[in-house]
Amino acid sequence: MTPYYHRDDVAIYHARCQDVFACGDAPVVQTLITDPPYFGMEYALSVLTGRVPYDEAQDAQWLGHLCAWYREWLPLCREMIEMATGRAWIFASPVHLPALARTAHLIQWPMRQCWFAPESEALVQFGRPVPEALAAAVGQAVAASRHPSRKEAAVLDAIVRASGDGAVLDPFAGHGGTLVAAKRAGLPAIGIDMDARACAAMVTAWEAA
Question: How many CB atoms lie within 10 A of CB 125?
């Protein structure tokens, strides 16, 4: 698959991550870091704010759709990371975390560690265990962050340091924070996003870093 943007140490793809993973020249990576899209959040927030009454059947249907969405890409991430004996780090909102945990259980991908922070997202680590000191540094960075998504530079830097050497992949790369963290660490990076505007923002962020 031809990248949207390519240099010696970075490749950016304007595509679905499933399609990039399925192509014959899929990237080989040691680390995966991502904050997946907020699929289904409009319904969840409507219930939480009382704009829509809670309905058990509708909630079960919503959770089923969310799990099905995770099943589209999470097994591919597991295959890629286990092939490289690497590590994966996935952010999840409170309403997404049950679906992520259930899908990971169904595909037999153990959750190694999970860091929680008040009023924000959780960070879940899969793959090769992280040494205790590095894991503690990640936890401290998450706890100190005040950004709603916990993807501040200090958090991403701590994750990259805890992941070791090798290429870093973000399959839902957005504006490129993960790629920039990899560049700061001197590591090659791959970013994927379906939104052309996000890909353009990634290029700008990478070249400015």
Answer: 21
pLDDT tens track for 103-156: 999 999 999 999 987 667 899 999 999 999 999 999 999 988 876 655 789 999
Q: What pLDDT sits at residue 14?
A: 97
Compute the mean pLDDT over every residue in the chain, rounded to the nearest whole number: 91
What is the amino acid identity at position 120? S
Instruction: Collect all residues with Cβ–Cβ distance below 8 Å to 81 and sequence separation of at least 6.
Output: 29, 32, 87, 88, 126, 127
Q: What is the pLDDT of residue 148?
A: 64
> What's the distance, Cα to Cα, between the start and end of the chain in Å?
26
Sheet (strand 10-14) strand order = 5-7, 10-14, 189-193, 168-170, 31-34, 87-92, 122-127, 111-115
Show the domains of the chain with their CATH numbers: 5-38+73-208 (3.40.50.150)
Q: Which residues contact 140 (CB under 8 A, 6 or more apart)?
A: 158
The two three-digit tokens of residue 55, written as one number: 């309905």
Q: Where are the alpha helices (DSSP H) in 6-55?
A: 17-22, 41-48
Q: Pseudo-torsion of CA 138, 87, 10, 196, nearest 10°?
A: -90
